[in-house]
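Run log // design_07
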């Protein structure tokens, strides 16, 4: 939610905050194990946050960050969640009465404590041990995520300018779902910016009798298979076949291999999602981000 300034007599500090919010912010990202991490400032303190639009929550905060957020109040309730490994976890619910991130006000936010989750593949796998900002934080706030340019932009009205292509999608419990196909089969896949690889359910592949190819993700003697799916405007992703929990309704997820090829514009409030090949920023959009 954008910060609102009211009244004829407005303090200079409040006016400055409002100006900054409407100007928007562009936050640099680092990739840790291929997962985007932003340094975000809250009440003068800077903390690392994983950017994870595969989470429908607003924020997951580590205990040390929770202790440093002014006004944060535990509700006494616990929220239960399950990850793609099928692990169920309990998270403490809290309310922040007026969350301001990098000068952009989001209003009252209900979040949960951070408890490690994720489907870990490989000996160095697993998400960074940071707090998380999820898709829910942007319910009223458009954003642009460009993994290739290592930037996340939000905090101002953003329009999909030149070079952006509208992407058919659904907004479901699991997040933003788009459909990718290859001429033989189609798959409903969830956007997951914190997934280092894309995955698809083996039963979804088998049901459509799709072609697969061998891969060596797990090393010698541990065979795996992939499917190849076309991207709008060219290119492809190759999700790995991997069993996912029964409660997960879509066919799989798209991760870093997708976001490395496409910048993503999301405006949940107006039901808009668009993509643009990376490295092709339009002049109109760049001028809005400065």
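design_07 sequence
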């Amino acid at each position: 939610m954008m910060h609102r300034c009211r009244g004829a007599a407005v303090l200079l500090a409040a006016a400055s905050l409002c100006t900054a919010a409407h100007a928007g912010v562009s936050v640099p990202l680092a990739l840790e194990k291929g997962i985007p991490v932003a340094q975000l400032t809250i009440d003068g303190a800077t903390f690392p946050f994983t950017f994870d639009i595969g989470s429908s929550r607003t924020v997951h905060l580590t205990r040390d960050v929770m202790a440093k957020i002014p006004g944060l109040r535990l509700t006494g309730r616990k929220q239960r969640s399950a990850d793609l490994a099928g692990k169920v976890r309990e998270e403490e619910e809290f309310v922040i009465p007026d969350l301001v991130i990098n000068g952009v006000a989001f209003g009252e936010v209900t979040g949960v404590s951070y408890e490690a989750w994720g489907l870990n593949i490989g000996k160095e796998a697993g998400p960074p041990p940071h707090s998380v900002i999820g898709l829910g934080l942007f319910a009223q706030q458009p954003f642009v995520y460009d993994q290739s340019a290592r930037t996340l932009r939000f905090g101002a009205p953003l329009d999909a300018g030149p070079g952006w292509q509208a992407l058919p999608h659904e907004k479901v419990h699991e997040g933003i779902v788009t459909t990718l196909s290859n001429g033989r089969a189609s798959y409903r896949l969830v956007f997951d910016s914190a997934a280092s690889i894309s995955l698809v359910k083996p039963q979804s592949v088998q049901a459509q009798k799709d072609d697969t190819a061998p891969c060596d993700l797990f090393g010698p003697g541990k065979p795996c298979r992939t499917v190849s799916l076309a991207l709008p405007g060219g290119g492809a992703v190759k999700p790995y076949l991997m069993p996912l929990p029964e409660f997960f309704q879509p066919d799989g997820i798209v991760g870093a291999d997708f976001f490395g090829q496409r910048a993503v514009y999301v405006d949940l409030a107006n039901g808009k999602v668009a993509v643009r090949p990376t490295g092709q920023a339009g002049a109109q959009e760049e001028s809005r981000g400065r």
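Residues 12-158 form a domain with the Cathepsin D, subunit A; domain 1 fold (CATH 2.40.70.10).
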